[in-house]
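User: These chains co-purify. Model them together.
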Amino acid sequence: MTKPLLSVEHLSMQFGGLTAVDDLSFDAADRRITAIIGPNGAGKTTVFNCLTGFYPPTVGRLIVSFGESQYQLEQMEGFRIAREARIARTFQNIRLFPQMSVLENLVVAQHTKLMNASMFSIAGLLGLPRYRTVESEAIEKAEHWLERIGLLARSDWDAGNLPYGDQRRLEIARAMCTNPAMLCLDEPAAGLNPRESAELNELLISIRNDDGIGVLLIEHDMSVVMEISDKIIVLDYGRKIADGEPDAVRSDPAVIRAYLGEDGDAQESSNV
Amino acid sequence: MASQPQDWSATLKESAITAAIAAALMFPMIGLYTSTRAGGLAIETRWIELAIGVLLIFLGRIALIRLRDGERLVPFVGGVFAVGLGLQLPLPNGLLTVCCIAGGAVVVLRSVVLWVGGKLKATNDARNSPPLAARAQLFLKQYGPWLGAAVIAFAIAFPWLPFADRRLIDLATLVLIYVMLGWGLNIVVGLAGLLDLGYVAFYAIGAYSFALLSSNYDMSFWACLPVAAMLAAFLGILLGFPVLRLRGDYLAIVTLGFGEMIRIILINWVDFTKGPDGISGIPKPTLFGLSFSRRPPEGTESFHQFFDIPYASVDRIIFLFYVALGLALLTNAFILRIRKLPIGRAWEALREDEIACRSLGLNPTNIKLSAFALGAMFGGLAGAVFAARQSFISPESFTFIESAIILAVVVLGGMGSQIGVAIAAILLIGLPEWFRELQDYRMLAFGALMVAIMVWRPKGILSFREPTLRLHEEDRGAKQ
Amino acid sequence: MEYFLQQLINGVTLGAIYGLIAIGYTMVYGIIGMINFAHGEIFMIGAFISLISFLILGPSGGAMVPIALLVVLLIAMSLTAVYGWALERIAYRPLRGSPRLAALISAIGMSIILQNYVQLSQGARVKTLQPVIEGGFQLMKAGNFTVVLSYMQIIIVVVTVSLMAVFWTVITKTALGRAQRACEQDRTMAALLGIDVDRTISITFILGAALAAVAGMMVTLYYGVIDFYVGFLAGIKAFTADVLGGIGSIPGAMLGGLLIGLIEAFWSGYFSIEYKDVAAFSILVLVLVFRPSGLLGRPEVEKV
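Assistant: Joint model of the three components:
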């Protein structure tokens, strides 16, 4: 059996006395959209931050495997995770480079490739053809993505001047320009209107099918999650309470409890 | 602007309050004077000076209030009157004279600006065109390359223009040194967004490298130049390492401390640096081995002998100007080019969002270190030119104020804009130096200029950023 | 041992003075997030005003000395406070909401202006004041070396500690302190809740300047030598103290000031006086490498 693209084993994360994630294990497969859902404060973003190297996990292993290579994320610096284990992410509160143009945002994402081609900037300074080829390839790739997210006409705008929905899509395109093996999206539908939300669904499905990579998704918007996810993991207070296909999770009593409260009485007593 | 002017009693009341505060401020400093006598310190009073000072503030405040309410004529006449008064009347204190003239000039200027601005506005409203500043930027964007070429042509022709005397050329060389420093620091502050208050350290290293290498090993300017640049860049990396994790103001104070440490070491390591006495007799650069002295040492030839022209001491100054100009143009070309390379974009991306950079696989450590190293390198180059210009350097030339001036050149110029930095260097270095008569008031004027420009244009004189890559010709989206 | 004790006394005295200046920096930093670079100059002006007041009150020896001291203290605090207020009004208020670097440059410009203003109005020469308070306790004697705790040192430490206590009460217990902390957290929200933000910021500058004036008076009395340039180094040191303690934190400023004072005293006492500033900065760098937010500063959590 081949290894899953991402496998999280016994992940725990503590901040002081607070346990944000508690003994969490799950897999996320290639060419699948895996969603992590759960009430506020369930530890979803913490899982992402452990995955992408912003916090070293207290306990646990995070393994990424593709082709012949295998990486243990918990031992890697953040930028290496992005560069070598090829995990790209977006952020809950969009983190574009607001004063740089849309196109530049996408080209910065291809920094590693360009930097190698520029040979510590020397080839670039001299304008060697070798560097020029790589640069125009990078621009082509950026154009390709601009077309897919419908921003080609605004390529020279400052990213910070784009409308909110466009910024969300641009951030996804920027992450895709790093040529990732897995794309991690932190609440991509937050603040989108229904039409934009539908466009996002299309985009994510096309990324799964056409680009053939794994997508890991944190989301509150159930319509997005239920419609496009292949697998759903439900967290509550840092623990996994359900794991399965959307239909199975939807009817799972533990999930209903976590979202709606035990029942009338229990809810009242817990509020006291 | 079109609001009704305040009635006079309200104006007078507001001005009186200002005058009262001014009186409290000036009473101990202007009204009283601590003079050193034989038996120790004694107090002298200067009531007349105090009274004149308070009166000037009172009148100035009235003028400003009137200006604020859109009145132009009365303040204008008052301002002209104040300038005339300051020039003609022997006020008891030079400080008062200077303040009187400067204050009057400011009022005159503002009333003129108000008048011209009003005119422009009246014609603009109909056509709904962008404000003046935006249009100036558009103009620069369109004609930028031509303008740049014109500026370079002017700079090359400069020493041969009729008004360019010895002193002016020498001053222009100094301005070019600061332009170079500004561009170098701009890499660190403007592009990479790292606040460096100790840039003078690299300037000092460049100057001392050249001075020490030439006096101890007889190395020529051209041989020392790359060494000075390398040493400064190396020091930049050395400083970079401990401060990598620091942010914003923590970084600022550590770099400031670093600059002070270098200066203290230069003062106290007497065996090596000759301490506070400094190093003198630093040689001037040569033109392919041709020196610019009247009587060159045995076995060498000098410029005027080789070309068989009469000796002129100004040749040396002109040559140094061209050396500085050449290095400055080189710096400019280098920075313009590297901004469009991956490393240049990575600096800017780092300034915008370090966390996003990491998530895209950019290594912040390397990017920061490269910014420090390259910025420092240009500081080192400028330092070597400075040492050659002065022929004498001592730790006194490398105090914190120097770092502050360079930073001011960058910020006033509008961070990231090459031409803005050059304009700011001319304004900040050229103007105060040119008004030599004001010698004592030079730094005062300098400080006032810094505050005034920042209050007037907080983003700098020219602040717009041209994307390093474009797909379409002209379209940047609505601002804000 | 005796030598150690003497350096300890000197260090604590020096640290108390740095602490007073440092509080002004840290308060302003807390409330508007900018380095008030001209604060060192405010301290220098405080020193000059105290010097001038001393000269006016003249040689009122004997029993009059304590009263004279108190009067000088009040004059210096109030007149310097006007300077602090004017500084904020002229150079910082128009820049509120502008890029941080703009405010920093404006502050540096103001610092240059104030330095030159005093130099031009009071002359560039060093001013020397005859000692007003002399004598002290001889604590210990070992051979030729006597450990002295001068009356002046006692005054400095007592005044500093009591002012800090008063100040701490103001910040933690009064409505003004609450308004200040509210502005620190969120200026827009504070304004919406009816706090006069401009006034709160002005008062912060006034308080900071008053404390700097006290420091200025202490330096004038303790060293008896001042010139227009004293503000620069003292300001830098005080700011270093702030960063060492964790900028924005008032206990941090006091602790940092004390530490910088001690480092300087011991380094000059045991190693070399020339490199005392290098030592202070090096220790700052060392501390920051391990604690990037200073000793008592809240570590900045990376919100992702």
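The mean pLDDT of chain C is 86.
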